[in-house]
Every structure is written in C-alpha cells, then in structure tokens.
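Issue 218. Parser rejects a valid record. Input:
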Amino acid sequence: MITKDSKNVFVADDSIFFRTKLSDILVEAGHKVRFAKDGREIISEMKIDPDGIDLLILDLQMPGIDGFEVLKWLNDNGFRGRFPILVVTAVYEPAQVIDNLRQLGASGLMTKGFTPEQIIFRVNRLLFPEKVSQRTIPERVPISLPVDFALGEKTQTGFMLNISEGGIYLHTKEDILVGSMLRLKFSLPGMSKVFDVKGIVKWSTQDVEHRTLFGGYG
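Output the parser choked on:
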C-alpha cells in the first residue's frame, strides 16, 4: 500500500484533529499533504497555486464557506475536472445530497469513520485511475483483520489490510523472504469458519516495513 509515485493531496477541514489524522495516514502512504482550515483558505490557495494539487479532500461542513460553496466556486472559475475531489462528512448524507455533490463535480463521498486502509484505498483509486483500469484481477477489498501465519515452525500474528481473489496484503514487521511459503489462518467478519490456506510471498515493502503503518507483504 506504499506508493513511490508521490502525489500532492490538499486536505480542507476545520478540525485540526481530523487534518492531523488524515495527514499522518497519507504521509505514511507516500504522499505529500497541504492543509486548509476552511473554504476561504481553499480558494486563496487555488488562486496562488492551482497546478500543485493532485487531489482535494474536502470537508462538507465548514464554517463560513462550506464544501458545497467551494465546489460551486471551482465550477464557476474553470477548475472543474482539473483534479479529483473526495468529499468527507461526519454523517451519512441522504440521496439528494449525494446527487447534488455529483452534479457539482465531486468524485466520491465517504464518512469520517474510515480506517487507514479504507482512506488509502479510496485515495489511490482517484490518484491512479490508469492502474485501476489495467487491473487483470478482481478489486481488492480494504479490511483490517488479524491473521496467524506460520513460516516453518514459527507462528506469528499480523493483519490483513486487503483481500482479493488473487491474494492478500499481510502487514507484519517480521522479516520474510520473497518466495517463502506461508500458512495462514483467519476468519472473515460474520463467519465462524476458520480459513486455513497456504500462499507464496510474491513481493514486499521491506524498505519501509519498519517505519510505516502499511509495511508488509503480498
């Protein structure tokens, strides 16, 4: 989940807690982050450096100029389609609000109750659409589940951060060689069945695995 293709993400939210939380996740994943605490700051930044933004993460409820007004300003000033916009909100919005956001040019909507895996999954889909379109395996589903894995006689516990028909992403600080055979045991939400499977380690992020939230193996 670490990217070496770093992008510039602009986070606009009036909550310093949320800005810090989101920044920590995005920086850990390899991106660069700028901030605005309200709609006026967003508009000022757009006027100064409109080309330095690859993705805008926009809070819907902000004092003064809110997310809706920012979207309208972007449309009225020729910025529509220049970069994707992921709208975040503290509550689930009704269907008419979602339709309105779509008409105003928002690329997606998610609530603030996300996990790090979910936000990176959504962000990277918007930042790298060409990689999504080139995928030859089913979509990965972002999760965070404990998994026991055995390498030889040694058993450890890690976390699965996503899963697909083609494999899983295993987060652990254990040193595992690419090509190693692992035996994994885990359960999926809502199921009592314990899956007991074997898999081969195909790749790793060993250069950053000890320093980030997302280091591990696929």
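Fixed in the parser; the record now loads. The first helix runs from residue 16 to 28.
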